From TrEMBL:
Species in which this protein is naturally found: Longivirga aurantiaca
AAA+ ATPase domain ranges (all copies): 540-696
Gene3D superfamilies to which the protein is assigned, alphabetical: P-loop containing nucleotide triphosphate hydrolases
Protein known as: McrB family protein
Length: 799
């Protein structure tokens, strides 16, 4: 029987939580978070009264408004609100809202009333998973989604318990009840409930537009038009052939080949990717450059597999296969080879697990049998495992490489897998991408992309290969601009002969400088949208200020972003203001002559960098003014008040009396510590000339930096993100919130966390709570760890 349930292991975390909610909270009268709490109709009606019928139409975010609406309610009503928000957030992928942010929202609501029960560890961890990208309205109109969820809960609770049980055995009755609720612009929540509560019937598709498109494409499969949309969609999915499998089980995924391109046109990012694909296919012989040598290596791997099965000396053959390829870094395969040689029986068992019922799921079996010292990290494990799958069929199982795959996903806005995803899930997502390329072959590539191996070769070429001298400068510039995320298409020109494209021997695990803004966002653990908006603002006014409390990464981000904008750190200059800093230090001034009487004119860093920028109009130059508010800005800036606003006009300077103008390609980034001096104290003339970007440790994207960093670099210390979030929630003051920068260090461990907390965090809080030692004690590390359920002798959280 076909199912619409996503069969990935990470998805089961979500389905299990939804099943528990259905059985214990909807059919039963229990609490999702506590077996000793009873919740029911009276609590739901309280939320209708206090939230649904008492909307807050003023300014403020969802949580601050919710606090005003239900902050005075009893513990059980607040408990129900938090648990319903848990269900609301459960469905969303981490690139829409991270697990840490989900937990922060729920914990904030739980803090509205004493006596509430915290999220159990096993349920808290499931928030790192997700099923869909729910769209912008999911975050922007959370109150509408929450309204519908409350109304749904109350409608179910008004049934007697046997009727509730029957409701969740009858998809048609369930849809009838759901459709009887007021139309509130909450389609995302309505459609999420359908899949969460009936995952084998209704697809994981929450977008109204997407549902309309698929029904319009397969009208003959969906039944009579007078039936409810959800039931028509379910009938259509049941009639389609399953197109995805996991560990021998099949399911129907409308967002995967061959269905996706049948009902949805490629987006702008995909279209550009395909356009560049056509461009390169006219100029590159993929068989010669990308296919033939991989087939040769696959033949070696097939011999290796036979040797493992026969018990022959296969380790030497494994070494030769790795040496024959350039698609796996030696830094990844050297430890694996050493382990295989020392533990050949264990290694053979891992290889046989990989090759038995070969596929994405078998990669997980392989990864469980290979120790960290043999293949550490996703990049190492998956590049080795996918390479070795070539022994089965390299045209079905091409090699995965993180940097190239991530870049392709970024350029096409293809959703990545979740933090909870297994190695096999990451690989299966890669195969989805390749299948979409294969699907376009007849229409766009004239059949040149025959299988996944060709698709992989094209992806490699698009991301890695550099043009040769036959390309015009404009064509080279267009390619570089597209690869950096600027949305540039290929330029038709005189290139008529194939480009000589040597195989790329770069290291897939190398730490290259980021070339796209998304790369930079990943390096900084920031939301790419935040950086993109920042760049747009900076290019608009040509100057911006990053402000916020200490430890939020203002200067670090400014330096990294400036180097990306300028294209080189050599075109970036940093100065730091302080109370003694003057006009003469920053712009120009007279200084004593050495060895003789008199003075000479010395140019400051602003004039020097402006001269370089004016002489090099093809590049941007960036001046960073760190701690901009610690100097007497009006005195230091002088004529800059005029020049920053009127870049086309010149003004005579104080000492040289030479006409001077600021070149358009000179950008200025200031940083200011709002704990030292409020932004409100800056004069209005300066504020009018700058955009201001708030680095708030309690709000996204800065609040997500530490959890993302820990998940990537120190996953065993992930509990620290919850501890910091709880501390900031207790502080309830962005001006003194704990920022991520205190803990961004390669050698972070439990000992360093304790040192930083006692020597940096607590002294600041002691100053903030001067004369209130009891309040400070609540912020001690052990106390906070206890609050988030992490024992001191067991630093690894259950989630």
């Amino acid at each position: 029987m076909a199912t619409t349930r996503i069969l990935y292991p990470s998805a089961q975390l979500v389905y299990d939580a939804a099943l528990r909610w259905r059985d214990e909270c909807l059919i039963g009268d229990g609490s999702l978070f506590s077996s000793s709490v009873r919740l029911g109709l009276v609590d739901g009606e309280g939320l209708v009264r206090d939230f649904v019928e008492n909307p807050d139409l003023g300014s403020g975010d969802f949580l601050s408004k919710l606090r005003g609406q239900i902050g005075g309610a009893g513990a059980t009503e607040v408990q129900l609100a938090a648990e319903l928000l848990y269900v609301h957030l459960l469905v969303a992928w981490s690139d829409s809202i991270s697990g840490s942010r989900k937990r922060q929202i729920i914990n904030t609501v739980l803090s509205f009333s004493p006596g509430t029960s915290a999220i159990p560890d096993d349920l808290a961890g499931r928030l790192d998973a997700g099923l869909v990208r729910p769209g912008q309205a999911f975050n922007s109109y959370r109150w509408k989604q929450f309204n519908l969820l409350i109304e749904f809960y109350v409608a179910v609770k008004r049934l007697d318990q046997p009727a509730r049980g029957r409701l969740f055995d009858d998809p048609a009755a369930f849809i009838a009840l759901l459709d009887s609720l007021p139309e509130q612009g909450a389609d995302i929540q309505r459609n999420s409930l359908q899949h969460l509560l009936f995952p084998d019937v209704f697809p994981a598709m929450v977008s109204r537009d997407h549902r309309e498109l698929v029904l319009a494409h397969w009208p003959q499969l969906s039944g009579p038009h007078d039936r409810p949309e959800a039931l028509r969609l379910a009938a259509m999915c049941a009639a389609l052939e399953p197109n995805q499998s996991w560990d021998g089980q099949a399911f129907t995924n409308l967002y995967r080949s061959p269905y996706w391109w049948q009902w949805l046109q490629p987006s702008g990012g995909w279209t550009l990717f395909l356009n560049w694909g056509e461009w390169f296919l006219d100029r590159v012989d993929l068989d010669q450059e990308e296919r033939d040598y991989k087939l040769h290596t696959a033949a070696l791997l097939a011999d290796l597999r036979a040797a493992v099965d026969d018990g022959r000396d296969w380790v030497t053959m494994l070494r030769e296969a790795f040496k024959d390829t350039n698609v796996v870094s030696w830094r990844a395969f050297d430890p694996f080879l050493s382990w295989a040689q020392e533990h050949s029986d264990d290694a053979a068992a891992a290889l046989q697990a990989l090759w038995h019922d070969a596929g994405s799921a078998s990669i997980d079996r392989f990864s469980r049998l290979v120790p960290a010292e043999a293949a550490d990290g996703l990049g190492g494990r998956l590049s080795i495992a996918s390479f070795l799958l070539g022994a089965i069929d390299v045209t079905r199982f091409p090699t995965w490489r993180s940097r190239v795959v991530d870049k392709a996903y970024q350029l096409t806005n293809f959703a990545k897998t979740q933090p909870t995803s297994s190695d096999g899930e990451h690989y299966d997502r890669f195969l989805e991408f390749l299948d979409l390329l294969v699907d376009t072959s007849d229409a766009r590539f004239r059949g040149q992309i025959r299988d996944r191996l060709d698709a992989q070769g094209l992806m490699w070429t698009l991301i890695q290969v550099e043009p040769d001298s036959a390309w015009t400068p404009a064509q080279v510039e267009a390619l570089q601009a597209w690869r950096s995320g600027k949305g540039t298409g290929p330029i038709v020109g005189p290139v008529t002969t194939p480009v000589d494209t040597p195989k790329v021997h770069d290291d897939p695990l190398a730490d290259d400088e980021p070339r796209t803004l998304s790369d930079l966002a990943g390096e900084l653990y920031l939301d790419p949208t935040f950086l993109d908006d920042t760049v747009q603002l900076l290019h608009d006014k040509r100057q911006i200020v990053f402000y916020g409390p200490p430890g939020t990464g203002k200067t670090f981000v400014a330096r990294k972003l400036a180097a990306w904008i300028a294209g080189s750190p050599d075109r970036v200059t940093l100065v730091q203001f302080h109370p003694s800093y003057a006009y003469e230090d920053f712009i120009e001034g007279l200084r004593p002559q050495e060895g003789t009487a008199g003075f000479h004119l010395v140019q400051g860093p602003l004039i020097q960098l402006a001269a370089r920028a004016a002489a090099d109009p093809a590049h941007d130059y960036v001046l960073i003014v760190d701690e901009i508010n610690r100097g007497n800005i009006a005195r230091v800036f002088g004529e800059l008040y005029f020049l920053l606003e009127y870049r086309n006009e010149a003004m005579r300077l104080l000492y040289s009396e030479a006409p001077f103008r600021l070149p358009h390609n000179l950008l200025l980034i200031g940083t200011m510590n709002s704990a030292d001096r409020s932004i409100a104290l800056l004069d209005s003339a300066l504020r009018r000339r700058f955009y201001f970007r708030h680095f708030d440790a309690t709000d996204e994207p800065v609040s997500e930096v530490l959890p993302r960093y820990l998940a990537d670099r120190h996953p065993d210390l992930a509990w620290l993100g919850d501890v910091v979030a709880r501390a900031n929630q207790r502080l309830d003051d962005p001006a003194v919130a704990i920022g991520p920068s205190f803990f961004i260090r390669d050698d972070l461990d439990e000992a360093w966390i304790a040192r930083i907390w006692s020597a940096a965090i607590l002294p600041t809080l002691e100053d903030h709570f001067y004369g209130q030692p009891d309040r400070v004690r609540a912020f001690e590390l052990d106390a906070l760890r206890g609050e988030v359920g992490i024992a001191h002798d067991d630093p690894t959280p259950a989630d």
